[in-house]
Prior knowledge:
about 270 residues
Amino acid sequence: MSTLVATRPRPAATGRAVRTVQDTVALTGRSLRHVLRSPDTIITTAVTPVALMLLFTYVLGGAISTGSSQSYIDYMLPGILLITIASSVAYTAYRLFLDLQDGIVERFRSMPVARPSVLWAHVLTSLAATLASLVVVVAVGLVMGFRTGASVGAWLAATGVLVLFTLALTWLAVLAGLSAKTVDGASAFSYPLIFLPFISSAFVPTDSMPGPVAWFAEHQPVTAVVDTLRALFAQEPVGGGIGVALAWILGVLVLAYVGAVRAYRRRVG
């Protein structure tokens, strides 16, 4: 693949943006092949969320009052989806760190490969792998009793929120992969992200928590995203919650993107 990227002819009139897209497609294909050769990555990513669904639904769910008529798995699934995303993006930091350590990125620098395409290839690979893991988790949720009367529009809106959330966390993963000193440090950044839904409305209503914890849970980004997804799946009005959720997601996305681009320039500059 590296040879193909280096030697394919480029029309003289092709602009920088077109070259970046072409190189991104080629490098994304390379990364996706690595994922397809080890599908256990997707399976491993889905194991933890599925295990949590089993635990909370069949062991703890009966002791938790949500104050709503929803079944507990319907209430809980949005938070499980966010945990799936946090688990999945850890592999992005891991793969990027290995590419840097193995000298692959330096080899690309010696070729006529657009610099942004290296990062975008990892981001798009992460998005594809994460969406596959989300499909697996939703499928298991349906088997366990998850039900929704959401319309096509609501499903599209929920998918859009999940895609944006994935992109935001993926760029954080890129920043972690560029900044880490060890392979363990590259993937460990995701642990707080996986833990954050537990201090939110993902599993219990925030008004059941002690005062300071409830305040934090109500004002952190995961609660806004979880409440939005839950409302979309339940065909309930999302109100201003979706605006808060999108503001959090886009804010993290922009900051993570800017930080990752700057870290990349310092690392390869």
